[in-house]
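sorry for the late reply, my laptop died twice this morning and i had to redo everyting from scratch. anyway the thing you sent over, i finally got around to it. pasting the sequence first so we're on the same page, its 342 residues, then the predicted structure underneath. double check i copied it right bc i was rushing
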Amino acid sequence: MRKLAFTAVGVALAVVLTACSSTAPGSEEPALELGVIDTSASIVGDELLLTSEQEAEVADRADGRLIGIVCATMATDYHRELCESAKARAEALGFTAEIFDAQEDPNRELQGVESFISKGAIAILDDSLGGDAITAQIAQAVERGITVVQLANRTFADSGAITVAVDNITIAEAAGAAAGEYAAANYPGAEVLTALLDYPDIPVLVERADAIESAMLAAHPQTTIVGRFLGGTADNGQSSMETALQAFPAIQAVVGINDAGNLGAYQALISSGRDLTDVFIFGIDCDPQAVDLIDDGTIYKGCVNTNPVATGELGVNAFALLLLGETVPATIEVPVFIYTGE
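ok and here's the structure:
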C-alpha cells in the first residue's frame, strides 16, 4: 500500500505490529494486520492527515472495534479537551471509544489500561501520568499486540508506543522565556519576585518547572524565584498562592506548569485585596478561562497554546493509518505557540 510521507533518517528500527482483536483475550476472531511503526522517524503533526478516501476505508475496517482512552484527569480543560477530541475522532472513523478518568491517580491509570486490555481494545490512547509501573504495563500491552499511543508525553517511546505530544521542554522554555521577556520589558534591570507553581509528584512536570525557571532567568537574570509551590489544579494553585502571599506579600509574577494551577493563583491574588498593577502571570495550555483573562487585559498576560484538541485527533489518526497498513513515525510532534492576545 501507499506509504505515508514523513521526514526520517532511515527505517532501520521499524517495528511491524499485529493488533489484538476487539474482543476479550482468547477470542477466536482473527487479529488485524497493521502497518509499520518506524521508531527512527518523527513528523510534525499537521502532516499526519487522512484523505476523505482513507477515512472511508478506515470506517469500513473499524467495524465498531474498541479504542480505549485513559485520561490523566477530566478535571482540567486541557486533559478533558484532549480526551474528548480523541473520542470524537475515533467515533467519527467508525470505532467504539471509551474514556477512563484516572483522576490524577497513577494507580487508577493502571486500572484503566488493564480494563481496556480485558475488554479487548484494539488500541489504547494513554494521556499518561508517567512512572515505572505504568511504563511496564504499557510494554506488556504492546507485547500482546495492542497498539499504544501516548498522548501529551513521550515516556513510553522505548516501550513500542507511538508518542503524540508537544515537547515538554520546548513548551516550558517558551513559557519561561515569554515571562522573562515580559519582565525585562516592563521591569528593566529590576528584581522580579516570582512564584513558580509545579507538581513535584510527576517527574516530567518537575523537568518542565526546571526548564521554565531556567528560561525565565536567562531572559531576565534579575528574576528571583521565591519558591516552588504545588499547582496543577485550580484548588492547589489557590491554596498555594494564599500560603505564598503570607510569606512573600510582594510577589510580582506567577509562572506555572499549566494554566489550571495558575488560575487558582489568579483567584487568590484577586481575593488578596492587594494592588496588582505590578503583577503578571504566564501559563501553559491556554485553557479557555486563561485566554479570556488575557483577552480582557487582566494580570494574566500569556500562555503557551499546547493544542489539546489536535493532540487527541492526531493520536487517533496515527492508529487509523496503521490500520490501513501505512508506515507511521513513532514520534509525532504537536506544534505550539505563545498567545498574548496580540
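The CA atoms of residues 72 and 238 lie 21 Å apart.
thats about all i looked at so far, will dig more tmrw
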